[in-house]
Specification:
Elements: E1 5-10, E2 15-18, E3 31-43, E4 50-66, E5 71-75, E6 118-120
Antiparallel strand pairs: 1-2, 1-6, 2-5, 3-4, 3-6, 4-5
Length: 121
């Protein structure tokens, strides 16, 4: 069974403690997400059945200190969507999919972070 990692506490307005460390494979510099309970439902296109949910993100964090069973993280620099980059054509992948329709959005919310929030590696 995979361990559920969560927010264990706060040091100040800039640092958060998570409940995973060296023994869990956490390393300095890793980038993680603090998840929201809100998200986007994923539906089967044929039956309409809900297959699951992709949670929104409260914050992107970066590990700055790792202990055996906990780590300290700071908020990672905010991600800039491609639109914010203006005319810059930055390509991270050699080939892109072509889709028709609206993409599933994994929004970064402005919800407050609290002890017990789930952290995704």
């Amino acid at each position: 069974m995979e361990k559920i990692i969560g927010v264990a506490g706060f040091i100040d307005d800039f640092k958060v403690i998570i409940s995973a460390g060296n023994v869990d494979g956490i390393q300095e510099g890793m980038e993680l997400s603090i998840l929201s309970s809100k998200g986007e439902d994923i539906r089967d296109p044929f039956s309409g059945e809900i297959l699951g949910r992709i949670p929104h993100i409260k914050a992107m964090i970066k590990v700055i200190l790792v202990q055996d069973r906990f780590s300290i993280c700071v908020i990672k620099d905010q991600y800039l969507p491609a639109i914010a980059l203006g005319n810059a054509n930055i390509s991270f992948f050699k080939q892109r999919f072509k889709f028709e329709g609206k993409p599933i959005e994994r929004m970064v919310t402005d919800e407050p972070i609290k002890v017990g929030d789930i952290v995704e590696i």
